[in-house]
Each structure stands twice: as structure tokens, then as C-alpha cells.
């Protein structure tokens, strides 16, 4: 990955290298401080703020400086404990399958004992880890064996479990307790739990009656500071012989509500025009982005009732909204009975379509908000 050159410095998917990664110095220090001092971390934020990329960046630093071995696990596709364990086993296998003598025998034996089958994909030639014909060992047992394997490594192992809120949807009632037990059994492993459902992550780790209560350090990933982002944007335009004025970078930041993904997307498109940025080109990019997402927005509208959709639209058009229960808000947008509005709003906030911060309500998806604002 080192010194990999790209045709557009504004990356819109994943982490490429530090060169194209804006800021996050404090957060990287913070993660290193926690990991070096035996503390586990929970990383959460609003959507698309950069959690996964921060983990990737942090892990690439740890690996490069030989400080630790890292393991990244994404639980997004998992629907139950068995699939979660499979994801962990697969990540371990991918990481450690190659030793100087080829496949690691101990690892293969251990996975087979747990009920996994290792086969070779005839297309790619790479080994595949699947649940075999035999039933998987009970979750606690499997996790214990996988944990022991990792704990025996000479180097410190740091494991990131992304989209961790997924476990709250598992039908296995004790998923939280099982993971908490796992964490406690292996104090030598460092864990970073990350999740894109902010509220769920917060409550899992800060409610008194939950297994993970006060067991980890919470890191709420905030937007990158506007000035830092502005400098990063200007630097990359300038390095390629193009000019973008400070007031334009500020405008992008505000329009994107500081959300990393949206800023990257706007800048990627502007950069793609290969000319100095003007008011007109900026507006053109905003319009183009919203236009491209239109189908996704229509899809949202089908999933919601008329009242929910009307409330969502009203929230977007009143951004930043402080009093969604007020008569003034309800009658301005003709939303009907206050109780119906309250029910709709509750559904929208539970699903994090609408979110609340510092007494302000807003439509979580920035682009959807911008589109709803435009639709009059
Ligand atoms: N510090 C950064 N500098 C530049 N680009 C970044 C940075 N952080 C994230 N990005 C870009 O922003 C986008 C969103 O980042 P990422 O997927 O890491 O966010 P996330 O918080 O994990 O999102 P989700 O809530 O969907 O899981 C990606 O396209 C990534 O390339
Ligand atoms: Mg992510």
C-alpha cells in the first residue's frame, strides 16, 4: 500500500494510505494510548464519519511499526452467533494461514475441531473456511479456542470488531454476555468495538444493566475540524495545479455537515473536473450528487408511511430543528395530530433516520436532507 499513487486524491471508499487521509491525529494517538495501556475501546459516531477508515489507518501504522498484529472483523453480514464466529475464524485463518511451512497446521487442526471445514476454492486457489457438515462447537467454546490461539501469539494482538451493534439483533439471547465473557477471558487481547448505529453502541456500553457496562473506553468520533479539512483539500488541489478558495472549502464542509464521506465525494467530483473550482462548478457537483442518489431516496419514501415521510421532510426543511413537538412546527408543515407526529418521529429516531444532537433534530443522511430541502 505504501506510496500507492491514485488518480484522484479524494478517496471515496476505504483507506489507501496516510497521504490521502485527512487529520485524525488526536484519535490515532488516543487509540495508540489505549491499546498500549491495556484498555479496550468503543468507537462510535454518526454514519460515514470515518470509523472504519480510522481503524484501517491505525492498523496500518501498528503493522508498519511492528507494534502489534491486527485483525479486522466485520460483523455487518452476520445474522447470528454462528455467523459471527465464522467471520472471526475466517479473519484469523486469512491472517495466519501462511507460515514459512505453508498452511499453519495447528490453526487448521483447531478450526477443524471446532467444526469448520477448510477447502480450496478452485477458482482462486485460496483456502475457504466454511461451516462443515459437523455442527459447530457451542459459541463459548469456539470463541475460547479462537481466543487462546490469538493470546498465544508472541506479539500483542489488536482485534477490531466493526458493526458490533449487529450482535443486538442476533436471536441468540446471550450474544452480548458471550462477547463480554470472551473479553474478560483474554485480558491480553486488545479489542476495538466499532459500530455505525450510534445510539445502540452507546447504550450497549453505557447502560447499567448491560453486560458491557463501563468495560471500555468510549471514543465518539466527531467531524474533522473545518480548518484542517480545508487545508487538506487545498493542498491536494494545489499539488495538482488547481485552485480551490477557502470560502469554497468552507461551503463544502457546511453543505456536508462535516460528514467525511460527503466531503470526500464532493471533492472527488470537483477534482475530477480538472479545473479551478468556481461557484458554478461547485453547484453543479452538489446537484449531480443529489441527482445520483435520487433512486435511493425514492426507495426510502416507499418504506415509510405518508406521515413518517412528511415528518422526515419537515425535519429536513427546518434544519436545525429544536422543537418537533411544537404546534408551530406541526401546523407549518400541516402534519396533523400531535400524537401521530410524535409516533412518526419516534419511529424515525429509533431507526436513526432522524437523529438528535445538542437539542437539534436533523435528517441523518446528509444527501437525503439536501434533496428533501430542494424538493420544496
Ligand atoms: N480521515 C479521512 N480522510 C479522508 N477520507 C476519509 C477519512 N475518513 C474516512 N474517509 C472516507 O470517508 C468515507 C467514509 O468512511 P468510513 O467508511 O470509514 O466511515 P464509517 O464511519 O465507517 O461509515 P459507516 O457508518 O457507514 O460504517 C470513506 O469513503 C473513506 O474513504
Ligand atoms: Mg464503517
Q: Can you put this structure into words, describing what you see?
A:
The protein starts with 24 loop residues before the first helix and ends with a helix. The strands form 4 sheets. It has a 5-stranded parallel sheet with strand order 2-7-8-1-9, sandwiched between helices. The protein has a two-stranded antiparallel sheet with strand order 3-4. Strands 5-6 form a two-stranded antiparallel sheet. The radius of gyration is 23 Å and the shape is globular. It has 376 residues and is α/β, with parallel strands linked by helices. The chain has 3 domains: 24-220, P-loop containing nucleotide triphosphate hydrolases (Rossmann fold, 3-Layer(aba) Sandwich), CATH 3.40.50.300; 224-303, Helicase, Ruva Protein, domain 3 (Orthogonal Bundle), CATH 1.10.8; 304-376, Arc Repressor Mutant, subunit A, CATH 1.10.10. The model has no long low-confidence stretch (mean pLDDT 92). Helix 5 (139-151) runs parallel beside helix 6, helix 8 (226-239) crosses helix 9 and helix 12 (306-317) crosses helix 14. The longest helix is centred in the last third of the chain and has 25 residues, at 279-303. It has helices spanning 25-36, 51-64, 81-96, 105-114, 139-151, 175-185, 198-206, 226-239, 246-255, 260-272, 279-303, 306-317, 327-332, 338-350, 366-374; strands at residues 41-44, 69-74, 98-99, 102-103, 116-120, 127-131, 157-162, 190-195, 217-220, 354-357, 360-363. 34% of the residues are buried. The protein contains 15 helices and 11 strands. Magnesium ion (MG) binds next to helix 2.
